Amino acid sequence: MLSKNQLKHIRKLNKKKYRQETGLFVAEGEKVVRELLNSGWKAHEIYATHAPQDIPHTPIKQSLLNSVSHLFTASPILAIFHMPKYKQTPIGGHGFSIALDSIADPGNLGTIIRLCDWFGIKNIYCSPNTVDCFNPKVVQSTMGSIARVQCHYTDLVSLVHHCESEVYAATLNGNSHYEQTFSSNGLLVMGSESHGIGEELLKKIRNRVTIPAFSTDTGPESLNVANATAILLNEIFRP
């Protein structure tokens, strides 16, 4: 039986400030928990209504798990992990990386992390106001890919200024991605759907790429940022 303090502790891990203070975050779902464990991430505690015998856990009633879950529908397994400590590596000569400016939606960040994992991208550089990668909804939507992709939070203007590789910005008024030639090493910068890439950051980037629209009628103003990232990564890595 979990104490009131333990229940309160799990619920408070929904807050970024509390995660940073404790160095802990929540992961829910057997696939995500197993991926993190198999990658060597250290579990602080694992609670489950039922789980495979190879996952040590503290039994918990489903009703209690429902009360502390950070998801709309609780999974049978909830784990608390220690945050890994990443060392930011300089960009240049190390394949492609992604930079995200002001991405607020947890689902979008989680999907982009999965995309990076699929395409073999190891590092994502996020503006400080981008949603925390250890937000429970981000972790869950990565489906375990967060174990293989590192998210670094940093000043993107400085990052781009010191970047030794080609930098590409996804905008609404750039070169068509069908005509753009991408280098083998580079940095792709994606902005939020509502505001795009910040003006100060955009001024630093001369390569601007657009996904052309084919709708003849009045269509959407922009693509979902995760969908746009998928399209551009497919073009970048196309043989």
Top keywords for this entry?
single chain; Alpha/beta knot; six-stranded parallel β-sheet; alpha/beta; 60s Ribosomal Protein L30, Chain: A; 2 domains; 239 residues; 31% helix; elongated; 9 helices; four-stranded mixed β-sheet
Explain how this protein is built:
- The protein is α/β, with parallel strands linked by helices and 239 residues long.
- It folds into two domains: 4-82, Ribosomal protein L30/S12 (60s Ribosomal Protein L30, Chain: A); 96-236, SPOUT methyltransferase, trefoil knot domain (Alpha/beta knot).
- 31% of the residues lie in helices and 23% in strands.
- The protein has helices at 4-12, 16-22, 30-38, 62-68, 106-119, 136-141, 156-161, 199-202, 225-236; strands at residues 24-28, 43-48, 58-59, 77-82, 96-101, 123-126, 150-153, 166-176, 186-191, 207-210.
- The strands form two sheets. The protein has a six-stranded parallel beta sheet, covered by helices on one side. Strands 1-4-2-3 form a four-stranded mixed beta sheet.
- Strand 5 (96-101), helix 5 (106-119) and strand 6 (123-126) form a beta-alpha-beta unit.
- The termini are far apart.
- The mean pLDDT is 91.
